[in-house]
């Protein structure tokens, strides 16, 4: 069964809502883990993988489309990605920065060198 973008986005909304509703200080580790998962899901790579999955399912696997049509649609998709890469949502960039800052601070506190 193909994964639909709207299902992924709804699942992401549920994760974000769950994270927002956490109130216990004991759940800080869970909040951080959810933040990491949300950042990963909202990343450009993940969004591109969803696009590829949709493209494969609805274009390349279609018996109703000719090879010529599939070629045209493939070229259109490639041009789209080359000219307009998917944006990183502002909230994702903020979550990633916050997550990175937390890691850098914890590594600095324990005298561990952070390498990128």
UniProtKB/TrEMBL annotation:
InterPro entries: L27_1, L27_dom, L27_dom_sf. Residues 4-64 form the L27 domain. This is Disks large 1 tumor suppressor protein.
